[in-house]
Every structure is written in C-alpha cells, then in structure tokens.
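> call design_seq(struct)
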C-alpha cells in the first residue's frame, strides 16, 4: 500500500457515506489537481458522491448537506512548502496558514460552515503545486500525484 493510499485509508476509515470535493482552477497549471481528481472519479457506488467544485466549491455546500456524508474529503492544490506533487493532510487549525490561490470564498470559512451544518468528519488533502501561472500546463510531478490519488480512491471506495 502506498503512503497516499495509507493516508486516505486512515481518513476514510469507518465512513459509510463519503463526499469528495475537488477544488482549483483548470486554467492555472497545478492548481487543477483537485478538479482533475474529481473529474476522473465516477461510478464509485451510491454511497460516494464526487463534486467538481472548481474555484467556487462553496456552491456545492447545499448538495453535500443533502447527501449527508459521514466523511467529506476536500482535495486542492496548496502551498505547504513541500516538494512538488507531494500530498499531505492539512489539519483544520492550519488551514489559515496555508496558501490557496484561486477560491472565491476562503476555504477555511467554507469548511467551518460545513462542519457546523453537517457535523461530519472533514479532511483536507493538499497537493503541493509548482506551476500555478494562468495558462500553464500541469507539471509531471503533480500529474503523477493526481494519478496516484485517483487510483487509491478507486481502490478504497469502489
């Protein structure tokens, strides 16, 4: 089992209903990581819902509340000071100190709202980006991380 798969298995352990929310901008290189993961996940069963939140993930809070997940996994590119493509869990208390580049509403505000409204376990998986310029392509390191995370989630949730 890879390190990413082990990490995801730990945060999703015991969850019967899982919501996955991919965030980021398709127009800004590595920032598209969360969105690409969400777009590639499908047919994971009726107890898994995947949302492609893009740059306005707060638009999906109503749908996620209706689904009533036990666990919400938010995936986004983040500047965590790690090597490009490395994925890591970002503790809720650290969200304010991590840089997210393209959201309409600060992610911390949205996650705090979701925590109050549905009370489920919420985890934020950050993927360290390198190239975030408008019009840039995704770097090979982040592309490989996207592939690994998609494979791990399919194996864990399908």
């Amino acid at each position: 089992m890879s390190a990413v798969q082990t990490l995801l298995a730990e945060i999703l352990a015991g969850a019967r209903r899982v919501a996955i929310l991919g965030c980021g901008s398709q127009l800004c290189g590595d920032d598209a990581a969360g969105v690409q993961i969400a777009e590639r996940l499908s047919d994971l069963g009726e107890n898994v819902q995947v949302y492609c939140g893009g740059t306005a993930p707060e638009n999906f809070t109503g749908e996620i509340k209706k689904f009533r997940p036990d666990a919400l996994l938010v995936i986004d590119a983040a500047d965590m000071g790690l090597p490009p493509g490395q994925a890591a869990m970002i503790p809720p208390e650290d969200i304010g100190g991590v840089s997210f580049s393209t959201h309409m509403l600060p992610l911390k505000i949205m996650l705090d709202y979701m925590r109050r409204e549905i009370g489920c376990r919420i985890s934020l998986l950050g993927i360290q980006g390198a190239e975030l310029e408008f019009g840039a392509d995704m770097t090979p390191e982040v592309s490989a991380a996207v592939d690994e995370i998609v494979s791990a989630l399919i194996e864990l949730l399908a």
